[in-house]
Amino acid sequence: MTPPLLEVQGLRKHFPLRGGVLQRTQAWVRAVDGVSFAVAPGETLGVVGESGCGKSTLARLLLRLIEPDAGLVKFRGEDVLAASPARMKRLRRDMQLVFQDPYASLNPRLTIEDTVAFSLRVHGTPRGEAAERARALLGRVGLDPRLHGRRYAHELSGGQRQRVNIARALVLDPKLLVLDEPVSALDKSVQAQVLNLLQGLKAERALTYVFISHDLNVIEYVSDRVLVMYLGEVVETGTAEALAQSPKHPYTQALFASAPSMDPEHRMERLPIAGDPPNPIDPPSGCRFRTRCSFAMARCAEAPPQPVPVSPTQAVACYLYDAEPASVA
To answer: N or C: which end of the chain has fewer CB within 10 A?
Structure first.
């Protein structure tokens, strides 16, 4: 088998909450807590979950934009977390991030052409060559460089800004692209254009995607495999087809049941999930979903369930799928 392009093991990040006169740490926000997965070359891994479950923090941890508390991140077999600053600069040529807010992530003082060329200049490319490559890439993402190249971010629409962000991420010819909700701020028609653009670029440049979103329709469309997160932990993984046809974890089932149907005869008669997500400062013991789960058992409060394979393409962290059926009430 082909070795994974990206491998993550036990990744954890807790943010301190400080207070008092001396600003001492009073509590911890458990944003990401023991996440593990692998991404094969050419694959698109979708990461889905409710707002606040740690998806965006995970994206920044992968590129070491924030330092993790524990865990391992390997890119092409190399330990990213142990890399020196000079080596990390080189690694980031191959690992790029597209941010969620297409306006806040652009420098308002730079023209669009200069924005795309900036990364090349940082890595030593001459100004003329950098500008030429930036113009070529702007054209590839659907922006006429003669018309848009000398404009500023505030002169573009939301979809155009996100195309600029995609061009900026691709200008260094990366192998891995981490996309943090790249279409959530766009309307549906522009979403479709950007998603089709990303699909075309992936095939054209042999890219690997980690695609983060809370929209199940988007995740199903772009992903080969899906990772479902809840309150900083992974509760289920599997192929996009397997999760869409037969979600196993009660949380995954609730997510798919919450998606609106195009069939007017298919009406939602009861809420698929009740309550709000628990506070990440003080999450429930054991399984973190147990306080909202209809199938919660006594053992769910004792220890967190470990992921177990339920099919060749699916694994779930839930005691309902315990290897010993007698232990499940």
So the answer is: N
